Amino acid sequence: MPISPENYARQRDALVEELRRVASSIAKLKNEDPDLDLSELSKKEKEIASITRRVYEDQFKFVLIAQSQGGKSTTFNAIGGGSVISPMGNAALKCSAAPIVELNVTDQNEVGAYVYLRTEEDLRDICAELLGAAVHSRDLNLRNKKVLARAQDEHKRLLDEWLNRRREITDEQRDLIFNVGLILAFYDTREVRRLYDEAQSSTLPALRRSVTEAGKMARFPEDFVRRYAQGIASAFRPEEVYFPFIRRIVCKIASENLRRIGATVTDSPGLFANNTDTRVAMGEIHDADAVWYLLDAKQISEYERRAIRECSAVCQDRIFFSANIKGNYASRDFVVKRIIPSIAADIRTLGGDVTDDQIYPYHALLALLATQGPRLLSGASDQSVEQFLLQMCAYRDIEVSGAAEAWVVLAGEMLRSLSRQAEHQFNSLPKPLCSEGIELVRRESGLDQIITKMEQFVVARKAASILLDNGASRAVALLQMIEQRLATREATAGKSVEESKKAFQMAERKLDEVRAFADDALNPLEGSAGEVIDLELAADMFDNVLVRRMETVADAAAPLIREEVRFGRLAGTLLNQLTGDGPSIPAKCRSIVEGKFESELTPAFTAWSSEIQHRRSRIFNRRVLEQSERITRAIQTKWAATIGNDELLKALPAPPAFRPDTFFDTAMIESAIEETHIVAKAFSKMLLSLFDFIGTLITDFSNADIDFGAIDKSIVESVSKGLASQLRSTLERKRDQLLPAIARTISGYRESCVSTIRAPLKDVERSFDADKAQAELDWARDLAEQKQIAEKSKKAREEHIQPLREGLERFVHDTAILCDTCT
Description:
By secondary structure, this protein is an alpha/beta fold. The protein contains 32 helices and 9 strands.
């Protein structure tokens, strides 16, 4: 049975007290006796402080996923405390694919936002997705006036076709048109260039802004569509349209909700909207500890079916479902008794393991109002809150005198659909915007229930990691390092200089011996042997991602090819060429196929990578992880035999990987894959290889015998069927050529294991070098001083550090029992 949230909260607070006591003792020890201010002591003090802060901060990563207008941004803003950080509104346009992250910080000096900008390559890719063959990504120089003019002409033509209703487009295509137009119009302006110069001069590099300022940068201006249609450059000021240039925003805030669950929440772009959004969203999902999927409390749409299926492939049992009771169409009782059971049944047919009571109902807009109410009541609301409330009333054609009245009107309207009794209680209050009214709104919104369920979700999955792995156990390891450093200094300071130097020389030779042994032991994972492993993984990915997804790629590309035919883009030449009567297929068709390769393969490749990261890949486990375990065991045995009774090496803070009672730390592989962004880098490189392959495919496809018939719905089926067949056959024919290129792009998975095995030895070497440097300083002292240092080191170790370490070890033992992890 996992630890309960109540016990978790008590242990968490107890851990913080222990860690603060440790930090205080280290600081006191360091300040009271300069002789004991070891080179690493100040660093360890900072690390303990960092561990303490993180207990309440970003230990668990939720990524929010929902369909457009599903209440995702409203929920994000409510969890963060009510400020309008993430853009939202009635029929709001989704104009940016920038994830917005919020995390709790305990230090008020850290409150603020970091705004990361898209690279020029990112912007080129976004433009190329819309403009296609007219301006290919690799040829689009956003500062070249001739190229830029050609791109702007193509964009204007697409915009005119849509505005004059000559072309039907999806909401996602509309948003892409908006984004591209703004990028082309404003990228080379003085204001935007100033932002990029500021970011590049920063150490991160990112723009440091207040949370309110960052929220403004992410939002699009009022009356956006009408102004856009009038003329892009003349309709907006540059500072109104920074959002297309933003890649990511990280908001550090003081949030009781986030503090309670110890999590970060990311408002992610939508899946399948376009290539950029899908790639970014799947990257966020892959790196998250869990997906928070916000369902519409009606019925599951086709979008949600596909999104849940893709999320389940990556996250499996790490999906937290809630249902947003938005609008005025159903009471809470109706949603709970009728709608949620139907939704749960649908999710189970999609492979999800969820019961009716694991889909938690709540009202996103009421939740936001509940968090904004106290700020309005105290007069501490910011401009973003007041503007939002007034806009929501304006959308509903309701006249109000101010933000406070808007809050009352909106809360009453939302309560009316949920519960007549709650509405009556609310309206019966002399002044509904009061503590009692806010509490009623909060209760009816279901926000507290959602936070409680999220806390249980986090605790059940990561309590041991937060309290032990990243908390007490890590602090114990740091204290052991301090103890061992003091012991080493005690031993070397008590010897003569000659004896001490000989001891270090002997220890150095033994370390070199272990290092050489490790190099030989790693041969099965490096060099030509490593390349063979990469080829096996490439073949697995080829069969289970590329080949299996070709029909999906074809189905997605076919309607766009049909659209081009309908509007005469490729006219009769396309039909002739596709049936084999023409020369090569137009570049526009290649652009369509490239785009769909990226958007359709992204979730499949992410799911395949997740199998590796979470140790569910049969090939990776057998060829890499099992060998890594054997190699680690061999190094452990060699280490134990080599160090023998060597005082210096025995006193070194050897990492757990060198202890004979531990196994190869496969959890380190997860961290290595996540921190080095292997998935995104591998997929980007793989796409380049595949795009070259698509050129061959298009040539073959142009010679295929496809009967298009009339330009109607049947053309989609014809194109899809012919394209899918050609994709599969060309892939198989090019298999031997593609596999080595793919193997090179995914070698990072194997290399992460090699790095994990080498890391402990490097840590030992660094500690040894630090001890030797300290000893060389001590050798310059006279004998009496050295003996005094030896005595001080012993006293500090036995009277200060050792009791602190033993106290934390007792905490680890007791908490392990509570977390049901004590073996």
